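Kindly inspect this chain:
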Amino acid sequence: FCLYFKRPVVRVFFGIVSFVLLACFLFTFSFLGWLSFLLASLCFVPFLLRQVKFPSWSWWKKGLVIALAVTFAGLFLWVIARKNFWGAFYPRYLYYRAAWELLVARPFGGHGWGTFGILERAFNSQITGLTAFVHNSYLQAWVEGGFLCFLGFVSLALLFVRRIRGLFASFTGTGGEFLALAIGWGLAAFFIDNLFSFTFIKPNIALYGWVMLAVFFAFDHKPGTSLREKKGLPFGSLGILVLCGLMGVVFVRLLGGFFFYHGAKYGPDARIYSKAMQGFSRAGRWDVWSPNISKAAGDLATRAFDMTKDPAYLRQAELQYLEALRRSPYSYAPCFLLGRVYQMLGQNEKSFAFALRARELSPAEFERDIERLRSYEEERRKREEASSPN
């Protein structure tokens, strides 16, 4: 945008915005994110400097660019010095090892979209290895969607590289081409980052990348032509309907999240239990996919029982955890918590059955939670002994 607009005031404004955004990006301490950005910059910055005739700039402009580059290089080295690389790479080793085992088992058909977080538990006995994402979008597409899905992601990346090469070859310095170059620069980092992350496939994160990808491909990269100069919409009325539908889904999920928050903020206080449950109930009607809402409502009912010792709250917790399992049958937490609820209700057979199911789903999480329960029971026993007059 600094090069797209001609007015000096606007250029200065976008220059300041760029500096602030890059600084915010750096202070996320995401080493792999910054590494992806720097690798993409190795391709785009030299080309951009040639196009803007950097050697012919005045000395103070050159000095400003060099000072900014040195500043960010220093901050990047500072981030590296403060980063715990073992803490970042060892879990990924566990993820990749589990992904490889699953890939060997079904190399062509895949295991089904969204199943990695369930199936990888059989290969990871450590808490740090439990995740829903491989942290490599291309590999996860292969594991879950099969070889054709993986081929689709790779083909998209190769098509993007081809478009970038075409943009470099036909670049004439028009405003639309500068915008396409800027978007392509960010997307190049996006494609590289997905070798180490999951920004391609996690919906709330992937939204930015996919929208920018659509905008980038909307440019036809012909000299002197930009998206703003095109006539008509590329997909017509059908595209508008699909877009409105997607926006409606996003709105419904956001509305469900709002009511979820409204219920959760009342959680610790049993006196306004009804308000909290009302918020969870509304969230559940708007967001019919997520098991987290029912689980949170069950947690709230369990806390209300701890405060009041009223078994009616345990019955409500039972219903909520069963609803969470209905929405996500392979979810570990509702199974384990149902075992606890049935234990407090004195229904030992059901308690044992759900505890056994939880252990099958995630042995590592089960052992961790059992140890936490033992510690909690020991601390409660000590408190009761200390408060007893005898």
About this structure: The first helix runs from residue 8 to 26.
